[in-house]
Specification:
The chain has 254 residues and is of the alpha/beta class. The chain is 40% helix and 18% strand. A hairpin with a 5-residue loop joins strand 3 and strand 4. Helix 1 packs across helix 10.
Length: 254
């Protein structure tokens, strides 16, 4: 099983990138599970025809000990298994703690042993890398980490912070940073800026994802480009991203 975490600043297109990546991997024949680790709980909606799925925290609150895997794992486009950790009511509670609770419940219910995915992808908010948000990289859940960034200053600042957190945990044998996915915003000298930032934090740009209206067309239909705009050049871009992620990740025995 390959275990991958994708981090990035809020609003950078991380969930869009992750969903399109999951779809591309699924169409290559891999059994993929995507776990959304953002209190907005919108990571998987483009794999679920634009619909929001019940979160682990919501179902836990409602069903308690009677909670079953089918209450929190839903099959989306291409057979991708979709899970949303969820978050607390705004202003009450800690989103990081919510992620920890969700992960504990998935482990307790033996989600990975039951579904046996080939690839698990954690889609994680990267603005704050507190204990809960760092759970995928420090709890042994993910082996490889990719950061989604544009050339915008705040996105690169977040990427630097995430890289620092991974470096701190990496010394203890946890996840390793494998590179930056450049999700372009068409700012001046963007590729050079991100390449320079990647070099400074000791990594590389693994894939350039150009800005393209087909992504928005697909999102408006509640899907990925692989599902909604099959003749788009972006389908090939995400296929190439999938190939890079497969090259850079380790398939390990559970």
């Amino acid at each position: 099983m390959r275990k991958i975490a994708i981090y990035g600043k809020g609003g950078i297109g991380k969930s869009t990138t992750t969903s399109n990546l999951s779809a591309a991997l699924a169409l290559k024949g891999y059994k993929v599970m995507q776990v959304g680790c953002d209190p907005k709980s919108d990571s998987t909606k483009n794999l679920m025809e634009g619909k929001r799925i019940p979160t682990v925290l919501e179902q836990l609150k409602e069903k308690g000990e009677s909670l079953k895997l089918e209450d929190i794992v839903f099959e989306g486009f291409g057979g991708v298994l979709c899970v949303e950790a969820g978050g607390p009511t705004p202003g009450i509670g800690c989103a990081g703690r919510g992620i920890i609770s969700a992960f504990e419940k998935l482990a307790e219910l033996e989600a990975f042993e039951t579904y046996k995915p080939d690839i698990v992808i954690y889609d994680v908010l990267g603005d704050v890398v507190c204990g809960g948000f760092a759970m995928p990289i420090r709890g042994g859940y993910a082996r490889e980490v990719f950061i989604v960034s544009s050339g915008e200053m705040m996105a690169l600042y977040a990427a630097s912070n995430i890289a620092q957190a991974i470096k701190n945990f990496g010394r203890r044998g946890y996840a390793r940073l494998k590179g930056i996915i450049l999700n372009a915003k068409n700012i001046e000298n963007e590729q050079e800026l991100v390449a320079k930032a990647a070099e400074e934090i000791g990594t590389e740009v693994v894939k350039y994802v150009p800005r393209n209206g087909d992504i928005q067309i697909a999102e408006n239909q509640g899907g990925t480009v692989s599902e909604c705009v099959k003749d788009s050049p972006m389908v090939q871009v995400y296929n190439e991203l999938a190939e890079r992620v497969l090259e850079l990740s380790v398939d390990e025995e559970e």
